[in-house]
Write a structure and sequence with these properties.
Layout: H1 7-21, H2 29-50, E1 51-54, E2 57-61, H3 62-67, H4 80-86, H5 92-107, H6 111-116, H7 121-135, E3 139-147, E4 157-165, E5 173-183, E6 189-191, E7 207-212, E8 219-221, E9 253-258, E10 266-272, E11 278-280, H8 285-298, E12 305-311, E13 316-323, H9 330-333, H10 343-352, E14 366-368, E15 372-374, H11 386-391, H12 395-405, H13 410-417, H14 442-449, H15 459-471, H16 494-510, H17 514-517, E16 524-531, E17 540-547, E18 551-556, H18 565-577
Parallel strand pairs: 8-11
Antiparallel strand pairs: 1-2, 2-7, 3-4, 4-5, 5-6, 7-9, 9-10, 12-13, 12-18, 14-15, 16-17, 17-18
Helix pairs in contact: 1-2, 2-7, 8-18, 10-12, 10-13, 10-16, 12-14, 15-16
């Protein structure tokens, strides 16, 4: 047990130092007492110099401690016998005995007695004192555990175990260490002093002390209270979550080792943990894990990718993942054309304009707006219906019928009023709203019908499109269950929603989305998207789908056709979380 000493400490420790240095020579005693006083003054100075303020707490500076050592009193042999003994390594019994004496003195707080049992008395006393002052334990014990494997025939080593208790800490700090024993010049067996005598991880130039832990604003968890800190895609997301009104955070403290550089200190023991109000997000940790893996697989080779999963019945965001994780969150903050996944919105506009799913809408090999357009699936299909065009993702059929039936601003109006695209969303973190501008020319309108040109969306927006079709109602996606949401000024007509579900179901079972959706049962629907970048590089892959009460959108830049990279990623999440 450490006990604080005040005025009486100096006299007691000075006397102890003089006793250790006295060898029985009465005439020599005054000289040794004087030397002892100088030693004590140096040691006391070492303690003061060794204390470094770190975050408001003392720390032990080992640079000073190691460089300021001395051999201590009694290092000069007084006889030939002593000199001969000094040449012999300590025996195992001697090592054990001196180690136990040192540990007992250290444990009871008698740093002077402990230091006197080392080969660097001044350095050891300074270090042990600074350690005590920096940590201020309520109780402290150091006990030997027997010979240590680090020992050698010339320097036997003894293991020990430290147990320290602190006010306010939930448990004790315990760790194992080892010390080496050498023969001093005066023939005594003494502890070889080194920084790692205090702690095995402590090295020259490092400090050990107490620091304040970072104070988190909130403690975000998934909807079931599970932690979310380990997910790469959420590292930039979680710090954006605001605390509940009136909630307080409390910073904790920990014992750490620091080297004085910008490198994060090594945390040894948490004295008091930081605490913050828990905020449950809409995310599902299990589904988030699947989404992270799915995106990681499809982004191999450096291809940027993202995925968002939404619960259609609530608008809750269940997962969001993106890669590379060190870049901006493209899942909710990106903006790019979605390709033929936009045909879901265009099809809704055509259905509302009077076109039926079984209306014949020929799929020509090429068409003009007056700009020339073609399809991935080459050839003429004059008997295709609107459903066929949707299922096989025919560009020319949608462009021709769109230019015939729709005004230039119709698709942007349907996107905004019924799907919420273009409204100002507040999901709980920074996000980019979709842009579906009113086209000025027929060429711009043709590009917009098939998700090219100036349409700018991300995985969040297109997952919401799939969710709106599945449920028939736009619900703005959110990360916080109680967040205030924007509502769309209109609603997707019930008959239109039903027809869209039929068309997306057929695409998932018989059309371009068949391969990735294979094996998925229950209420399913999907739409592929393939975006030509105009750079000569691989096309961008897009895929939106739903299965039961789970809607997903994924995109992979340079991933090729929509049913390949993005489709595979989306299907993995639907398989893990979707139900019929």
């Amino acid at each position: 047990m450490f006990e604080d000493r005040e005025d009486g400490e100096l006299a007691e420790l000075t006397a102890h130092t003089e006793y250790i240095g006295y060898d029985g020579d009465e005439e020599e005693a005054p000289r040794r007492r004087s030397a002892s006083r100088r030693v004590w003054q140096l040691a006391l100075g070492g303690v003061v110099a060794g204390l470094v303020t770190v975050g408001g707490y003392g720390a032990y500076n080992l640079v000073n401690a190691v460089s300021d050592g001395s051999r201590g009193d009694g290092d000069h042999p007084e006889s030939t016998a002593v000199a001969a003994m000094a040449q012999q390594p300590p025996t195992a019994e001697e090592a054990d005995a001196v180690a136990r004496q040192f540990l007992a003195a250290w444990g009871r707080g008698d740093v002077t007695a402990a230091a006197a049992l080392t080969n660097r008395q001044e350095t050891a006393r300074s270090a042990l004192s600074a350690f005590r002052e920096a940590l201020k334990p309520r109780s402290f014990a150091a006990t030997g555990t027997g010979p240590a494997p680090s020992g050698t025939p010339s320097e036997p080593a003894v293991g020990f175990r430290v147990k320290a208790e602190f006010e306010g800490a939930a448990g004790a700090w315990e760790y194992d260490g080892a010390l080496s024993v050498v023969r001093a010049a005066d023939g005594r067996a003494v502890v070889r002093w080194a920084p790692n005598v205090i702690h095995p991880h402590l090295d020259t130039g490092e400090t050990i002390g107490v620091r304040l832990l970072p104070t988190p604003v909130v403690k975000p968890t998934d909807r079931n209270g599970k932690p979310l800190d380990a997910f790469p895609s959420l590292k930039s997301v979680l710090p954006q979550i605001a605390p509940p009104a009136g909630a307080d955070s409390v910073g904790g403290q920990a014992v750490v080792i620091s080297d004085g550089t910008a490198k994060a200190p090594e945390q040894l023991f948490v004295l008091t943990p930081s605490s913050a109000p828990e905020v449950r997000l809409t995310l599902d940790a299990g589904l988030q894990q699947v989404a992270e893996e799915a995106v990681k697989q499809q982004s191999a080779g450096g291809k940027p990718a993202s995925l968002v999963a939404i619960q259609p019945s609530t608008g809750h965001i269940l997962a969001m993942a993106f890669s590379p994780s060190g870049e901006y969150n493209r899942a909710v903050a990106g903006g790019q054309p979605p390709g033929s996944t936009m045909k879901v919105v265009t099809a809704a506009a055509l259905l509302e304009a009077g076109v039926r799913p079984d209306t014949v809408v020929p799929c020509k090999d090429t068409t003009n707006s007056p700009r020339p357009w073609r399809n991935d699936e080459r050839g003429d299909f004059p008997d295709y219906t609107l459903t066929d065009d949707f299922t096989h993702s025919c560009n020319t059929g949608f462009i021709d019928k769109g230019l015939e039936k729709l005004q230039l601003g119709t698709v942007p109006a349907v996107a905004r009023e019924q799907f919420g695209l273009g409204l100002e969303w507040h999901i709980g973190i920074e996000s980019r709203d979709a842009t579906v501008p009113v086209p000025k020319t027929k060429d711009e309108a043709a590009a917009e019908f098939i998700g090219q040109g100036t349409v700018q969306v991300n995985s969040l927006a297109m997952a919401s499109v799939a969710a709106t079709v599945q449920s028939g109602t736009f619900r703005q996606p959110v990360l916080l269950p109680g967040a205030k949401r924007v509502t769309a000024p209109g609603k997707l007509p019930e008959g239109v929603a039903r027809d869209l579900r039929t068309m997306m179901s057929r695409t998932a079972t018989q059309g371009t989305a068949r391969a990735p959706m294979s094996g998925l049962t229950g209420q399913i629907g999907a739409k592929t998207g393939t975006v030509e970048t105009g750079t000569g590089k691989d096309t961008n892959s897009w895929f939106i789908a739903y299965r039961g009460d789970l809607a997903v959108a994924a995109e992979v830049e340079g991933g090729g056709h929509g049913n390949s990279a993005a489709g595979v990623a989306a299907a993995q999440v639907l398989k893990a979380g979707g139900k019929g």
